[in-house]
Write a structure and sequence with these properties.
Shape: globular
Strand content: 25-35%
CATH superfamily of the largest domain: Clavaminate synthase-like
CATH architecture of the largest domain: 4-Layer Sandwich
Distance between the termini: 33 Å
Number of helices: 12
Largest sheet: 7 strands, mixed
Radius of gyration: 19 Å
CATH class of the largest domain: Alpha Beta
Number of domains: 2
């Protein structure tokens, strides 16, 4: 964590120390910038990177605040959001995440962080090998406030189909207007800068066994609703086989053991390397407003380094 004096111009300082900060980010996975002066979020991010990207097609429930800023999540505040890396289920993903605390929660509401390198190192050899060998098939449904129109920011089915086709994602239309997508992705990937192999998937969160009673209650409209109707996402082995829920439980226990957290203060900016470090959200009550910017396409970075 870097804690600045009130008089320090944080964006100017970040620009002057950007290379050092990036090295620290690759070493630790996340950096917290804290200043009583409440520095400008846009300027701080611009001092660190010029390559912001869109969230279009993501699984989270969030809204666009302006052209480059989103709400961190609008998932029901009484529910926890499990540890995840943004777009780990997609063909491309942002390398950098910037979270900014506009309104600090008074009751929980932390953004816990998980070391994806440590998680992979400490995973049972047999489980790690099976994930590496078989990969994952993500099945994503769109609904419960995160409709395909909201996710892809369009009313055009044809445009959604074109986006998904370009990204290697198969689409299926169900009924009049329900979308389901299918995408095969690796479970373990290599960081293009550090060279570290990292756990980079969301099997432990998307799997249907993770639908606890709180989520059931939030999503259910009828006692007759089935799991398939309620749960918008699921994950299978890449060959289509079902993943044993016991494996998912073991992984989730390990995730929690590799997780740390801090309490937000207004004006904080958290920089996360999206591959090295997963994040989540603790449940909370009362006001809380965390903003998000995402940056630096993994695919573009790899292409530049070829």
């Amino acid at each position: 964590m870097f804690e600045a004096d009130r008089d320090l111009d944080v964006p100017v300082w970040v620009a002057a120390h950007r290379d050092e900060l990036r090295a620290d980010l690759h070493r630790h996975g996340a950096l917290l910038l804290r200043s009583p002066g409440k520095p400008d979020f846009d300027a701080t991010v611009a001092a660190f990177t010029e390559h912001l990207v869109d969230y279009r097609g993501g699984a989270a429930i969030r809204s666009r605040v302006d052209m480059t800023t989103y709400t961190a999540s609008e998932y029901p505040q009484e529910l926890e959001i499990r540890q995840h890396s943004e777009f780990c289920y997609a063909h491309d993903w942002p390398m950098l995440l910037f979270f900014h605390c506009a309104t600090a929660p008074q009751d929980r509401g932390q953004t816990p962080l998980t070391d994806n390198r440590r998680l992979l190192r400490e995973m049972q050899t047999e489980i790690r090998a099976e994930f590496a060998r078989r990969g994952l098939l993500y099945v994503r449904g769109y609904g419960y406030n995160r409709t395909w129109q909201r996710s892809y920011e369009t009313e055009s089915r044809e445009e959604v189909e074109a986006i998904c086709a370009a990204e290697g994602r198969r689409t299926e239309w169900i009924g009049d207007d329900q979308l389901r997508t299918y995408e095969i992705r690796p479970a373990i990937v290599r960081h293009p800068i550090t060279g570290d192999d990292v756990w980079f998937n969301y099997a432990h969160g998307f799997h249907i066994s993770r639908m606890d009673d709180g989520i059931r209650e939030a999503l259910s409209t009828s006692p007759e609703d089935t799991d398939d109707q309620l749960w918008p996402n699921n994950v299978f082995w890449g060959d289509g086989g079902e993943i044993d829920p016991e494996i998912i439980t073991v992984v989730n226990d390990l995730v929690e053991s590799c997780t740390v957290q801090f309490d937000w203060q207004e004006g904080d900016t958290l920089i996360v390397d999206n591959m090295l470090c997963a994040h989540g959200r603790r449940a909370y009550t009362g006001p809380r407003r965390i903003l998000l910017k995402i940056a630096e396409s993994h695919a573009d970075l790899v292409a530049e380094r070829l």
